[in-house]
Amino acid sequence: MLVPLSKKVFLGVLQFATIVLSILTLLFFLQRLTGDPAAVLVGHNATPELLEAVREEMGLNQPIYVQYATFIGKALQLDFGESNRFQKSALELVMARFPSSLLLSVSALTLAVLVGVPIGIYAALYFRRADGIIVNLFAGVLQSLPSFWLGLVLLLIFSVQLGWVGSVANLEDNLLRRMALPTITLASFYVARLIRLVRSGLIEELNEAHILTAHSKGLQPRRVLFVHALRNALIPVLAFVTLDLSFMIGGSIIVETLFSYSGMGDQMVKAIFNRDYALVQASMFVIVIFVLVINMISNRLYTFIDPRIRA
After folding, report:
1. For 71-113, what is each residue's pLDDT tens digit?
2. Which structural domain, as residue segments, surrounds residue 290?
3. What are the C-alpha distances in Å from 310 to residues 13, 15, 23?
4. How far is the C-alpha of 129 from the C-alpha of 188, rounded, in Å?
5. CA distance 9 to 245
6. Angle at 254 between CA 249 and CA 260, to 5 degrees
């Protein structure tokens, strides 16, 4: 039985709001667990009078429920305060870096699709041959490699040994040189994942009854593959690819830090070490909102491209 559209929208909005409120609540209490925010702001050598004045200005002398309500109210107005280090709006600083992180993620996702899907198709068509087995084993190994380890290996080879790219993502380098190693590092896991996903999906689809019937009717193998089998096998892949974009935004933190890539993840790691709470909270908020939006798009896309889900 189909769920009414209005009910679906209501449930989606309710789920979205619940997750956002939960994340904001977590961010609020994490800040309190890591020490006195006022002491972090003024330093440990501050006088008691100055510390008390800063606490008063930040509202830390108020009851915890008042602080919580104030924080939630400001957060819903996209006000996370100013960065302690830069003395600018925390959200504005995050959004200034967001396009760089998004560009890196989109580039890595594009590379993963361009490499992973064709190799996955090849591995499915020849899964009984030695080369097909080797491809599958290689994908399994690649998927298990930690991104920071692979990034260090790429830096050692292409920067230290060959000198093709700089050791960090220098802003003076051209775009290709600046993004090459971070993109490859970030894409590696998803290349392996797509290879295995496409391979398993296509092997299963090629053994379906309608595919065997198409072969028995004398249809050309190429037509059976691309018109009938591959179209159905790639339906879940399309949904996963959309969802992977949100994972990349969060997963790019390690890659950006490793290559000193000037993105949102690198900024957030530095903010954590500097105990810049406002910047950390704004970064986490943007990441969560992006993940939720992409997740909603992925669900709708999956429903749209697969009629069986709508039935």
Report:
1. 899 998 999 888 888 889 999 999 999 999 999 999 999 999 9
2. 92-310
3. 20, 20, 31
4. 24
5. 23
6. 100
pLDDT, tens digit, 9 for 90 and up, residues 188-215: 999 999 999 999 888 888 777 777 777 6
Strand partners for 82: 89
CATH number at residue 246: 1.10.3720.10
- Residue 129 is encoded by which pair of tokens? 């041959």
- What's the average model confidence in pLDDT over 124-140? 89
Domain count for the chain: 2
CB 272 within 8 A of CB 85: no
| 82 part of a folded domain | no
**Amino acid making up residue 55:** R
Same domain, 26 and 159: no
Which residue has tokens 């692979």? 150
C-alpha 172: how far from chain center: 26
pLDDT greater than 90 at residue 114:
yes
Q: Please state, in angstroms and rounded to a whole number, the distance separating the CA atoms of residues 4 and 8.
A: 6
Give the amino acid at 294: I
Give residue 4's pLDDT.
Answer: 60
Residue 240 contacts by C-beta under 8 Å, 6 or more apart in sequence?
Answer: 193, 194, 197
Identify the pLDDT of residue 157.
86
Global pTM value: 0.82
Contact yes or no for 192/140 (Cβ under 8 A): yes
User: How remote is the C-alpha of 295 from its chain's centroid?
Assistant: 11
| Residues with Cβ within 8 Å of residue 277, at least 6 apart in sequence | 31, 34, 37, 40, 84
Structure tokens at 138: 């290689």
Nearest-angstrom CA–CA distance, 152 and 217: 53
- Residue 74: both structure tokens together: 């400001």
Angle, helix 175-206 to helix 90-125, in steps of 10 degrees: 40
83: enclosing H helix or E strand: none
- Asked if 296 and 12 touch (Cβ cutoff 8 Å), the reply is yes
Mean pLDDT for the stretch of residues 162-168: 65
What phi and psi values does residue 16 have, to the nearest 5 degrees?
Answer: -60, -50
